[in-house]
Design brief:
The protein is an alpha/beta fold. The protein folds into 2 domains: 130 residues, Aspartate Aminotransferase, domain 1 (Alpha-Beta Complex), CATH 3.90.1150; 222 residues, 3-Layer(aba) Sandwich (Aspartate Aminotransferase, domain 2). The strands form 3 sheets. It has a 7-stranded mixed beta sheet, sandwiched between helices. Helix 7 links the parallel strand 6 and strand 7. It starts with 39 loop residues before the first strand and ends with a helix.
């Protein structure tokens, strides 16, 4: 339903601008099962280990400052990020999660009729932000559920303003090498911003992987985003950040809400960043159980997309009784929440977060039971 372009001011009620009512609202992973008090939630790629104890303590210590505004620039947190990643602090901006930074980028660069390019299975937030700015969204084909440089480049034209690449990708878990990212950047016009979403970057330990920060250090049209939601387990606090050239960061700062990250969130993020032991345990858990899940589920006759994130994508046949939606429902009936990803153009797949040992073993046995019904 698109609001009419004429007579909006004569309408009997306020009407949104054209295109807004055509946007499909974001739908997150399920968090409840009727009749189950405490389901095992493996639907949202959260850190199954929870949060750093140091981050929790910092959050609690912030309670006496709830009556004051936070530092609008997040100076202490930006300094901590700069020190941790060896970046220039003035080239860092903070967001209410990475999602807000994506929205701000769309606001800064898109006019009606401009377009963004993303993979056909790319994260929904990119497209939502573009359409809210009356921009066009172009979906590049992903052969083998993997972003392909040549397919991205095919979609770029004189009205392209932004290219969004999640690396590793969500919901597939596939990734591009540093060489491929540099090739993509070289193929883009200098007026196009390459946005590298590193929400899951810490979970990819292949030596060929690069998170893009070095490229953003020297290129005028590259920005890299990160989040504290995944590795650090601070999803509820909504803290994201981005690093890029001054020419991109400065306009973002002009429209960024001044208090978009709270005092407890900033303090917890600083503490989480310093807790390298928790980060190492989180990565080690994924590195141990992600290949195990891939091998075990593959042994059941299901195709598992090679993943470098903290989840696996399982592809199901379209055979009645064996479909992805039926598998999702079956697992929910046993108290396990996973994510069907038909809204990402993958109607025959479900995504499962890597859990603790007991969760991973149970998921495999439940899938075995489902397939044997």
């Amino acid at each position: 339903m698109t609001a009419p372009t004429t007579d909006r001011f004569a309408a009997p009620r306020p009407m949104p601008k054209p295109g807004i009512l055509d946007i499909a609202a974001y739908v997150g992973g399920k968090s409840k099962i009727e009749g189950v008090a405490h389901p095992v939630k493996l639907s949202s790629n959260e850190n199954i280990l929870g949060s750093s104890d140091k981050a929790k303590a910092a959050y609690r210590d912030a309670v006496d400052r709830m009556h004051i505004y936070p530092d609008g620039k997040g100076s202490a947190l930006r300094a901590a990020i700069a020190a941790h990643y060896r970046l220039e602090v003035e080239r860092i901006t903070l967001g209410d999660g990475s999602d807000e930074i994506f929205a701000l980028l769309n606001q800064v660069y898109l006019e009606p009729g401009d377009n963004i390019v993303q993979g056909e299975h790319g994260f929904a937030a990119y497209a939502i932000g573009a359409r809210a700015c009356q921009g066009e969204v172009r979906f590049a084909k992903e052969p083998g559920q993997r972003v392909a440089v040549d397919e991205i480049v095919k979609c770029v034209d004189e009205r392209t303003r932004l290219v969004f690449i999640a690396n590793p990708a969500n919901p597939t878990g596939t990734w591009l090498t540093g060489e491929e990212i540099r090739a993509l950047h070289a193929a883009l016009p200098p007026s196009v911003v390459l946005v590298l979403d590193g929400a899951y970057a810490e979970f990819c330990t292949d030596p060929r992987f690069e998170d893009g920060l070095d490229l953003a250090r020297t290129a005028e049209n590259v920005i890299v985003t990160h989040t504290f939601s995944k590795l650090h387990g601070l999803a509820a606090l909504r803290v994201g950040w981005a690093y890029g050239p001054a020419g991109i960061i400065e306009p973002l700062e002009r429209i960024r809400p001044p208090f978009n990250t709270s005092i407890p969130a900033q303090d917890a993020a600083i503490a989480a960043l310093a807790d390298t032991e928790f980060q190492q345990r989180s990565v080690a858990l994924v590195e141990q159980w992600r290949p195990w899940l891939t091998q075990q589920i593959g042994g059941l006759g299901l195709e598992v997309t090679p993943s470098a994130a903290n989840f696996v994508l399982i592809n199901f046949p379209a055979t009645p009784g064996k479909t992805a939606l039926e598998a999702e429902a079956f697992l929910a009936s046993k108290g396990y929440l996973v994510r069907a990803v038909g809204n990402y153009g993958l109607p025959n797949a479900i995504r499962i977060t890597v859990g603790l040992e007991k969760h991973n073993r149970t998921v495999v046995e439940l899938l075995r039971e489902f397939l044997a019904r």
